[in-house]
Amino acid sequence: MAGTCSVGEGEEVKIVQKTIELESVELASVLFGRHDRHLRIIRASLGVQISSRNGLLRIDGEEARVRKAVEVFERLIEIVHARGVLDGDVVDEVINAVECDRPGGPVAGSAIEVSIRGVSARPKTEGQAGYVEAIAKNDLVFCIGPAGTGKTYMAVAMALSALKMGTLKRIVLARPAIEAGEKLGYLPGDIQAKVNPFLKPLYDALEDMMSPAQVRKYIENEIIEILPLAFMRGRTLNDAFVILDEAQNCTIRQMKTFLTRLGTRGKVVVTGDITQIDLLPGEPSGLIDVQQRLKGVRGVDFVYLTLKDIVRHRLVQDIVVAYDAHEETS
Question: Would you call 47 helix, strand, or coil by DSSP?
Fold first, then answer.
């Protein structure tokens, strides 16, 4: 059970009522716990009355107790958004942090889990944990790092978690197909068939967490869209979790076009590796340029993953190091 900190004597006791609007039934289910276990922990620890009806969570009790309960629920909601799951130990930790006036974010340490239909996508490094936290806290996140650091994988996991929780209604995955204008014309099929090879890594990330049949169903129902960056022009993406992969291959103009697609109640994650730029010589990368343009803008965060965050085969890290060393000496 959560511990408490002493309350100063002589404080005036005032009975108040506060309400918190819950955005979905799914959020409430995870927040309350099995058979309302989490609610019972909070009631017993903070000495407040808690009830829920029609999407509203009502808290009654002494003003100081209610204020702390509201903060506990706000922190727990952030955790649910970030992880998709919640257990009693985390509830106890959050209560203790609030009681003792300690700061605490929605993600702590590397034991973060985002569950989608029983599949876990757990950040394996501190860098990945910070990446997940940044996505939970901001509407626009840029993640820059070498191959194998989980940039796309963790973004897709967070997108599926948001979809499962009902916080966003659809997922849009985009990728520049920089050869589509000249080298794909000879391939058979329509334009979608021509660009599909460039989008395959996004399908792979989805199929790690969902069955191929589920992926097809979501795509057929337009809950998930996978498309080349060129198809984004002119669109406004409301209630959507949007991921732009391989963004180092965007020009400055393409990056601006993409970023201005963000609609209301949306979230955007942009990933890329600025050491693997395939643009024509002399064409500046929009991912490099945007780091200065949006530096310090509220609601925008830049996450930089490193060699320490590579989670593919053990040789990948050595390969990246070898290539970097060769480029430095050449």
Answer: coil
* Phi, psi angle pair for 22, to nearest 5°: -100, 130
For residue 77, the one-letter residue type is I
Q: Would you say 174 and 258 are in contact if contact means Cβ atoms under 8 Å apart?
A: yes
Question: How would you classify the pairing of strands 49-53 and 170-175?
Answer: unpaired
Taking 80 as the threshold, does the pLDDT of residue 104 lie above it?
no
Exposed / middle / buried, residue 295 (Cβ in 10 Å: 0-12, 13-18, 19+):
exposed
Per DSSP bridges, beta strands 170-175 and 240-244 are parallel
Q: What is the Cα 305 distance to its own chain's centre? A: 15
pLDDT digits (tens, 9 = 90+) for 21-78: 998 888 899 899 988 999 999 999 999 999 998 889 999 999 999 999 999 999 898 8
- CB of 285 closer than 8 Å to CB of 292: no
How far from 229 is each of 199, 219, 225, 242, 313, CA to CA, in Å? 10, 17, 12, 11, 29
Give residue-wise pLDDT tens across range 259-302. Answer: 998 888 889 999 999 999 989 889 999 999 999 999 989 999 99
At residue 195, the pLDDT reads: 57
Contact 143, 133 (CB under 8 A): no
Closest CA to 290 of 245, 244, 259, 246: 259
Instruction: Identify the DSSP state of 232.
Output: G
**3-state class of 170 per DSSP?**
strand
Between CA 109 and CA 188 the distance in angstroms is 48
How distant is the alpha carbon of residue 155 from its chain centre?
5
The predicted pLDDT at position 140 comes to 96
- Gap between the Cα atoms of 232 and 258, Å rounded: 7
